[in-house]
Every structure is written in C-alpha cells, then in structure tokens.
Amino acid sequence: MEYLNMPTFFKAKQFLEANNLNKNIVNDVENFICQWKFKSEYDLTAICEDLDNLIEVLQENFFGRTTDISIFNSIHCVVYNLLWDNLKPVVRANCTERDLRVYETSMTLCKNQNFLVEQNDSSYCSVPYTAAIVELSFWDSHNSPLEKLNCLCTTYDIIFAELKSALVNLISKYSDKELEIPVIDNEEIIPVITVVLIRSKLQYSVSNLYYIKQFGKQFLKDNNKQHIFETFEYAIQSLLKIDYKQLTSCSQDNFLNIDHLEAIKRITEINTNPNNGKHVTKAKVSLNEENQKRALELILQSTTADVNG
C-alpha cells in the first residue's frame, strides 16, 4: 500500500515550491498565517474550523481553484507543522490522563522482555516486529495529522510484512515447497498491534488519535486509512482497559523455534485434556489455543508435504 498523497513536512514544502512560480511560497504562507484572525485559541472545534478555512483560502490564493489533492495535502501538512507548537498543548491537555495511563502500562509491561498480557495473547506476537516498533516510535514526533496518520499506515504495512516474512521463514525451515500464506484477519492482527504499541513506549498515543480524528478527518474518508486508524484506536482502547493488578509477566512460547515432533505434541495438548492417562477431546478451545494451533499446523502441513512428496 502506498501513501504518496501523504507528504512529510520537508516533501510538502518542496512540492509547493516546485508547483508554484513563487519560490518563497512557504515564507509567504507563514506570513499569511501570522495575519490570520483566529476565532479562538482554546476551543478546538473553532480552531479546526478556522484552519479548514485558512487552508482553503491559501490554496485559492496561491494555486487558484485547483482540484489537485496533492496541493491540498501539502498545504495542510505545511500549515499544521507551522502551527503545531501552538496546537500541541491544547490538543494534549484533553488527553493527559489517558496518555499517561497508556505510557505507564507500556513501561510496566516492557520491564519484562517476555511480557504477556491475557488480552494480547497470540502466537503471532512472538515475532519481534523490530521495524514496525521503530516506525511507530516516531509517532509522537510527527507534527501534522497527515504525517501521524501516515505513520500508522506505514506501521500497519510493516507489521504485515514482518509477520508474512516470519511465516515464510517458518515454512521454508521445514519444506522447500511454496505454500500459500494464510489470510490473517483483523482479530488476529489487533493483539500484534497492541504489542507493537506497548514496545514503542509512546507518551501521547491517545492525543495522537484525537489529533488525527479532529483535524485530519478528511483523510479518514479513505476506507483503507480509516480501517487502519480504527484498528490502532481499538488496540489503544484495549490498553486503557488493562488493570495494573491483572498484568502478568511470563515467558511466551515462540512457535518459530519448534520442530515437527514438538508441533504434533503441542497440537495434541491443545485439542485434548488428560484423563486417567488418556487424552479426551476438548469440547472447546480458547482463542489463544486456536491461534497457536493454526501456526503449528503450518509446520505440520509443510513437513507432511515433504514426506509425501
């Protein structure tokens, strides 16, 4: 997935300068903003309306009645970067308590490298997701709603790339035959996103969501971006619901490092309960057990393919 219409501040400035005869356009935009009469400095709804009007006027003044979405996005990005120092305290003031709760929960969990929270229990969480964590760790440092949303979208793509890479490596470890990577649904990816959020140790995650939703709602009209935003929003809400007293630190099994016989053994343990030396089939297995079973069956499927081949 590409987000070419979601520029960084530097690229947005370059784009505006490249598409206008006025090479001092960024300075002129900044001067125009300084002269703009804002209705309020503290009412976020009024500020949002003001900024929408400001961006519309800037676009018409410097580029005429264009429908080029890249021009709108670039102006939007530049305006919010220039005003972020003024907006930041107002935006974050509404979310201070929840921001702190998410941050403290993350720090508490990260004290143990093998943390495991019951709500986030998933076999896919054993993948390191290093690149995704690095990408998301910059979320707080972006200044515009556009860049913050882009950060979520990029992180989301990286998570899937790292997970698929891990599954491919898992299969190739036991088989030289190509197997189709299973479809990973949203219920399975949310625990992974939650773990990435925790390991990123973000200080302003709730504020970031609020900022995007309040000041970047036009970008959420895109179904893909809205889906990604809502997935992260759900994961952060799940972190807010965690009770410190219920946090559990323990070692998490890494399904990427087990062999064929161990996979058979674990699937048997998942499917059955021991009863007087015999294994009785379980009436129901947990969601976590289903996730583990699915990953383990990948190993068996690939190994069996080799044996039968």
UniProtKB/TrEMBL annotation:
Protein name stated in the entry: VPS9 domain-containing protein
Source superkingdom: Eukaryota
Gene3D superfamilies for this protein: VPS9 domain (1.20.1050.80)
The organism of origin for this protein: Diabrotica balteata (Banded cucumber beetle)
PROSITE patterns: VPS9
VPS9 domain boundaries: 96-248
A Pfam family this chain is assigned to: VPS9
